[in-house]
Recover the amino acids of this structure.
């Protein structure tokens, strides 16, 4: 089965002044269409960095991110990302912020709404939607 989401030797390092932080090193990951993968870890272990790399919001220091076999070089309409903090629009609920992207694109929002209702707390997850073609969603609640 071809991977819907794949990383090959993925790494990300940050530098601030004299401090070098390696957030991810040599991460190899394969997620098939319809699979559900939970990413759970302590604060600061690289969960959000991974999601930002998958979405194309960050450029890897090393390695590659592929969605449907295509290299991710920037954000695209086939992916979405709900930031760690639910304050995108503070007057909206977490659910309201989670469905904002599909809502603005005048797309079906029930899947995003259902996922936002089903998950809470400090858990991030990646879900691919079966039968949705190249559609890929990244959610963080």
């Amino acid at each position: 089965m071809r991977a819907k989401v794949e990383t090959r030797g993925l790494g990300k390092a940050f530098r601030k002044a004299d401090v070098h932080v390696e957030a991810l090193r040599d991460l190899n990951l394969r997620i098939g269409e319809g699979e559900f993968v939970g990413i759970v870890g302590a604060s600061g272990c690289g969960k959000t960095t991974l999601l930002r790399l998958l979405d194309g919001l960050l450029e890897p220091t090393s390695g590659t991110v592929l969605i449907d076999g295509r290299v991710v070089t920037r954000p695209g309409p086939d992916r979405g990302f709900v930031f760690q903090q639910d304050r995108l629009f503070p007057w909206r609920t977490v659910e309201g912020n989670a469905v904002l992207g599909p809502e603005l694109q005048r797309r079906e929002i029930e899947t995003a709404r259902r996922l936002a209702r089903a998950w809470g707390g400090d858990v991030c997850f990646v879900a691919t939607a079966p039968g949705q073609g190249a559609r890929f969603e990244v959610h963080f609640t």
About this structure: The beta strands are 3-16, 19-32, 36-39, 62-67, 70-71, 124-128, 136-140. The helical segments are 47-55, 94-98, 100-104, 110-118.
